[in-house]
Specification:
By secondary structure, this protein is an all-beta fold. It is 0% helix and 49% strand.
Length: 103
């Protein structure tokens, strides 16, 4: 997994590209980036599949914000991105955490 941030000079926005890579133990058919920016909507637009078997999606987010997110794989498995800027308790239970991006 990877996260690329590109701050725009023309607007107070950051273009964030999320990449979810296929692994030996996980070959997803559908991956979504779910977070504050889409109101944690599990019906959000899925990431685009890549020829490598991974997925990608680019989202413009407001600069200066902190946003929480997670990946939802095959409508059932929540996964964090280890390249996030920070991790915080998601309030559901004491173990689960959300990824945080500092924009």
């Amino acid at each position: 997994m990877s996260i690329k941030k590109q701050f725009l000079k023309s607007k107070p926005e950051c273009k964030v590209t999320f990449k979810f890579e296929k692994s030996e133990d996980l070959s997803p058919e559908k991956v979504q980036v779910i977070g504050d920016f889409n109101n944690w909507d599990v019906n959000a637009e899925p990431m685009k599949p890549l020829k490598t078997g991974g997925f990608t999606q680019t989202i413009n987010l407001s600069s200066g914000d902190k946003v929480q997110f997670r990946y939802l794989v095959n409508n059932s498995l929540w996964i964090n991105d280890q390249e996030a800027d920070e991790f915080i308790n998601n309030g559901v239970d004491s173990i689960e955490q959300n990824c945080v991006l500092h924009l």
